[in-house]
Amino acid sequence: MPESAPTPKHEIRGALASDEAALLELARHLNSVNLPNDRDHIRRLLEHSERSFRGELPERRRKFVFLICDRTTGEALGTSTIIAQLGRRDAPYIYLDVIDEEKYSGALDRHFLHTVLRIGFSYDGPTELGGLVVAPHHRRAPERLGQLISYVRFLYIAGHRALFREQLLAELLPPLEPDGTSHLWEAFGRRFTGMSYAEADLLSSENKSFIRDLFPSGNVYASLLSPEARSVIGKVGGQTKGVEKMLRRVGFRYAKRIDPFDGGPHFVATLEEISLVQDTCTLPAALGGPEPGATRALVGRSRAEAPFFRAVAVPVTVGKTHVTVAPEAAEVLGVAEGDALFVLPLKGGD
């Protein structure tokens, strides 16, 4: 008889309004536009997420927040978010295009290659992946929790493709000073808004209209900015180098666009280009012990009741007509024989 599989130690689930304190603690380690360290914003975000999972909001206005938790202690160890559509008529997706422009004077025989920044808007924008953070003391856990809470977004999108756009966007943090200073904002954004980076960043999490109203509409030559500001345009900060490597590996590319606040690069890919989406399948569950040739996979299930979605990383056997999961994992997921499961195999490099 096959040996019984251990009960999964961690689970990923949809975040609920009752997770306010846990999510606020995680936000303290990121404090980004999608996950600011602000209690009122976190409360609204969780309410928005819960209504999104319930299907109570228009599809393009939905946001889905996930938590990875220790099943023994209940501690929330990390989080990530999907924004169904970044950029609508009432709230455009705003960015700075990074353009290379050559200048040459025959009279002087001088040639220059300039970096030009130009503000852009999209009112029919992509799905955004954001809000990714793992508590610092769990970032090197052998279970690779950061990978799991990041990958769950692709698993969910693949299982609910009609809810999302064909293009996905991920914005990465640029190099910032230890105190959070953004050199690009100090040299550029502050001059046109009169606001600190922290003030503008928090305001933009709710309303970005001030960027459209106050930022210059024409070309801005980066050569007019400080050397420190120029040096961070399109660069990835040390804290997100691992995320950049993962994104490139699964099909994303730098879009030659940056965040108008801090210069962080935007990475994009279509659903067809993303290996994690293409590798995900939906199969009915069969219950049984680990079989020879079983592979580790991220397995998830949507439900009508809270927390609306659960996923675990466990050994499974993927067949043509079904996926075999251990009863212990099925119990965590609330799965019965024949229930549909979303399955993303985790390859050797994963």
In brief, what are we looking at here?
The chain has 350 residues and is an alpha+beta fold.
Describe the structure.
There is one protein chain. α1 packs across α2. With 350 residues, the protein is of the alpha+beta class. It has two domains: 10-103 and 114-277, 3-Layer(aba) Sandwich (Aminopeptidase); 280-345, Beta Barrel (Barwin-like endoglucanases). A five-stranded mixed barrel has the order 11-14-13-12-15. It is elongated and about 80 Å long. β4 and β5 form a beta hairpin. Helix content is 26%, strand content 31%.
Biggest sheet strand order reads: 11-14-13-12-15
Please provide the count of β strands. Answer: 15
How many domains? The number is 2
CATH fourth-tier homologous superfamily of the largest domain: Gcn5-related N-acetyltransferase (GNAT)
Instruction: Quote the distance from N terminus to C terminus.
Output: 30 Å
- β-sheet strand percentage: 25-35%
